[in-house]
Amino acid sequence: MPAGSDWTSAEIDGIVVDYFAMLAEELAGRSFSKAQHRRALQGRIDRSEDSIEFKHQNISAVMLGLGQPWINGYKPAANFQSAFGRWRVALAERAHRLAGAQGGKGRAVRRGRQRRAVADRPADDAA
User: Is residue 74 part of a domain?
Assistant: First the structure.
């Protein structure tokens, strides 16, 4: 892809799935390699590691905007492609299910200087 070109829907789909795989590992307390994930994505999409890393930061920004936990080390980026707008509902639903899969226990999530509470969610709300 030429530098600066908009991401396609298929590329966004792939990186969002990858982001949630890493987020699930982090919330479960398991280690993972962000660099390994970026390199694997490069094998599936024609984007640089820097571009992939910045897009992960874009997803963190959406998650922050939704009041959901985001991956430590992917500080939310201030600007993100309008195509992420269509992901707002899907990201919220996935984050909600992920929180439910963690036992439905309220917990504090600390990111840098920010501290947010992730609220308990009833099991019957999980999709």
Answer: yes
Identify the residue whose tokens are 């980026």.
77
Among the residues of 3-126, which ranges form H helices?
A: 9-27, 34-44, 49-65, 87-101
Statement: the pTM of the whole predicted model exceeds 0.70: no
Q: Let me know if residue 4 belongs to a domain.
A: no
**For 47-86, where are the alpha helices, taking DSSP H only?**
49-65
Report the distance separating Cα 101 and Cα 24, nearest Å. 9
Asked whether the predicted pLDDT for residue 116 surpasses 80, the reply is no
Q: 16: which residues sit within 8 A by CB, 6+ positions away?
A: 59, 87, 90, 91
- Establish if 3 belongs to a structural domain: no
